[in-house]
Amino acid sequence: MKAVAVYPGKPHSIHLREIEPPQLDSIPGGRGVLVRSLEIGVDATDREINEALYGNAPTGFDYLVLGHESFGIVEAVGPNVKDLQPGDYVSCTVRRPGGSIYDQIGRNDITSEETYYERGINLRHGFLTERWVDDCEFMVKVPKQLKHLGVLSEPASVCAKAIEQAYLAQQRLQVWKPEVAYVMGSGQIGLLSTMMLRLKGLEVYTVARSKKAGNKKAEIAEAYGATYVSTAETPLDQLVKQTGKPQLIVEATGSSQLAFQAMEVLSHNGALVWTSITGGQGTATVPSDKINLEWVLGNKLLVGSVNGNRRHFELGIQALAHGELAFPGVTEKLLTTRVDGLENYAELIRRLVEDKEAIKVYLRVTSV
Amino acid sequence: MKAVAVYPGKPHSIHLREIEPPQLDSIPGGRGVLVRSLEIGVDATDREINEALYGNAPTGFDYLVLGHESFGIVEAVGPNVKDLQPGDYVSCTVRRPGGSIYDQIGRNDITSEETYYERGINLRHGFLTERWVDDCEFMVKVPKQLKHLGVLSEPASVCAKAIEQAYLAQQRLQVWKPEVAYVMGSGQIGLLSTMMLRLKGLEVYTVARSKKAGNKKAEIAEAYGATYVSTAETPLDQLVKQTGKPQLIVEATGSSQLAFQAMEVLSHNGALVWTSITGGQGTATVPSDKINLEWVLGNKLLVGSVNGNRRHFELGIQALAHGELAFPGVTEKLLTTRVDGLENYAELIRRLVEDKEAIKVYLRVTSV
């Protein structure tokens, strides 16, 4: 069976290889679900793993099958799987449990262990292959009517978790009803976060570098009812003068410099969520006295948020469905860049790295 | 009536002046409480206001009476004050309500307005005077048996709120039971936080620059059952190797560089609380890619915390009382540096600025 893999630690080692097909009964307790890949998304994480910035092979392997953004169709289920049957569409969560208390209560997304297990990222093979198998616990159903957006399940879960983390942490304030939000970055996380915050009724500014004219990302943000702002046209401090300081910021630029810069524009009692994985060695010089002073006087909060567990996938899929009704036909515009066939992995990674206009780059493994 | 004041914006303008005595009936609704000052603490905030780094006079005044750490004895109460009577010992909260929803629900400590009102700091006169008056809402009773620590009520409220904010925000994790905490800084906030975290059963490392031998701050930290660590003897990264990464950090060094450095040692699912007011223009260069990556992967959280409202004063006073039973006679060792009489304001500020061994510098206005 074909799979797209890398040799972790070796830059630009992406390649096609033969691997053993997965077995349904490799999952204990009759809880296995065997899935045929339909569409597998790639993102900056895959790019950075291929650049050897992070990522590890499972024990006993020298390669790591890539792909953590999964969408497929169930082919077979074990005898103790209740909620899924062949023909169902599913996405699969990314993290697998370790041994901490969090893992034991089903919150492997917040394991307190330093070592984490993520399919397609760290110590577990990913989904960029013909078939995969996993425990039904990690498999989340995608309604048939949403199958055209199924490949966005994982990114949507990331956004849903990030936003939920902010709201949960802000319960410390007794009342928190943010009105103005900035979403920094207009990639898939930025745009899906824009949609979700618009669905909550916030006034959303989607802030990115590229100019607005003829910009597909800007068109999508505005189709969600947000305002797209190019920092090339309106610097961040000027935007703040126009909108007031935002009470909520979702940072998804992939730039750690901007992640820290976002600290400077957050309002009193505001929440900033960092979602970008930045694998480099970059540094930033920050006005530390000023940020610290304002964060203390203003009771401000920052929370980092990583990929979610099954409940976050459910929330993400719900938001995708809600978005289809509120903004019909908009979300599919994120699906800019499809490559067909595992053997075209080189084209897949080329589009991911080089195509600056691409929003979602994904591989169609099999036709739906 | 004598008061110690500054001209905000004019460095080193601290002076003694005559002001009008406060009137009980200046507080509406018969809710006034007139208090005679016993002991008023000073801290880095007072020093920085005298250095004109921040602070503003109330409208209609060119001076600001200093002092936000209050302790006094009630002399008279209005007809609608139920819980206080002459002879009661009290401390008084610092912030006064603005108009936001938070102010309306009694959470003026988290007002969402940019302008805040703080007695002795911003737009409201402070307590460094013979008598003061305020609404009974802002007056918190100190038990007679705790009157020797009454001047620590405000600092204790700051610590109680800071720790509570971390625990409240971490409810997002469903389970959070930190075991190892670092308290950075060994001033009054660092030491009182050390005590409160020890009362919660945590393994506490009180981390500061000064060497351990012959260091009074180290003695107090260890009398609370914490481990004092001098970064001059054990660099922070070496300490982390010994203890594991802390799940909770209270940052109270007054150095914004260290506030950001604390971000680098926090554990997965950890909470960092910033409590230092840093009024300068300092900058810090941070390993932004690394911090951002680790915060996202590790679901880490930062929260700024400022002075508290009456509930935090109540929590602080409870912790001081609990500390008296658990660690008898230890907390009073914080009261290193007493100056007698408002007319000795110059000595007060000199000790505050120059005496590096001082922990709590305070003015005895009247004998208890």
| Domain count of chain A | 2
Radius of gyration of chain A: 20 Å
Mean of residue pLDDT values of chain A: 96
What is the quaternary state of this protein? homodimer
Helix content of chain A: 25-40%
Intertermini distance of chain A: 19 Å
CATH topology of the largest domain in chain A: Quinone Oxidoreductase, Chain A, domain 1
Major sheet: arrangement of strands of chain A: 15-14-13-16-17-19
Stretches of chain A where pLDDT is under 50 for at least 5 consecutive residues are: none
What class do helices, strands and sheet pairing of chain A give? alpha/beta
Annotated CATH homologous superfamily of the largest domain in chain A = Medium-chain alcohol dehydrogenases, catalytic domain
Number of DSSP E strands of chain A: 21
Label the overall shape of chain A.
globular
CATH class of the largest domain in chain A: Alpha Beta
Number of helices of chain A: 10
